[in-house]
Amino acid sequence: MKRTIILFTFIFMSTLASAQSTDETKIAELTEKLRASMISGNKADLENLVWDDLTYGHSNGHIEDKLAFVTALSTKTSDFKTIELSEVAITIAGNTAIVRHLLRGNTNDGGIPAKVNLGVVLVWEKRTQDWKLLARRSFKISY
């Protein structure tokens, strides 16, 4: 009986670790897809990556909803030329995933080239079987 309990506990913990790893892998893939879509401005990809009730916060305090976020990137009003992510950390808590990372990039908003150095927090939420971005907040950092 004691062996059975130990075996069951081991299998249960292995299953949990595997699920966590699978979710972390999925979130890493979605974060990369978001990065690439923000550069390309692909409207369909951007719409599919975020929930309708998205809250997207910029480093200047400006907050956008899904429509404003997708429109700004797909029309190139917000025009990322490059985005590099570093120090990516993913935490899964049930149906919520938190991604923290640093973002360095080059923009060309309104024809004005600029560099951005940001700290970013992404909140992904799993509803049914889909993970999508629910919230984003960024803040300026200096290197």
List keywords for this structure.
3 helices; alpha+beta; 143 residues; globular
Describe this structure in words.
- The chain is of the alpha+beta class and 143 residues long.
- 38% of the residues lie in helices and 45% in strands.
- The protein is built from 3 helices and 6 strands, in the order ααββαββββ.
- The chain has helices at 2-40, 43-49, 66-74; strands at 50-57, 63-64, 80-93, 96-109, 112-127, 130-140.
- It has a 6-stranded mixed beta sheet.
- Helix 1 (2-40) packs antiparallel against helix 2 (43-49).
- The radius of gyration is 18 Å and the shape is globular.
Question: What's the quick description here?
Answer:
With 143 residues, the chain is α+β, with helices and mostly antiparallel strands. Helix content is 38%, strand content 45%. Helix 1 packs antiparallel against helix 2 (43-49).
What's the gyration radius in Å?
Answer: 18 Å
Q: If you average the pLDDT, what whole number results?
A: 89
Q: Ranges with pLDDT <50 over ≥5 residues?
A: 4-18
- Characterize the largest beta sheet: strand count, sense, and whether it forms a barrel: 6 strands, mixed
The largest beta-sheet arranges its strands as: 2-1-6-5-4-3
Number of helices: 3
Proportion of residues in helical segments: 25-40%
Strand content: over 45%
Shape: globular
Terminal residue distance: 58 Å
Instruction: Summarize the helix and strand pattern as letters.
Output: HHEEHEEEE
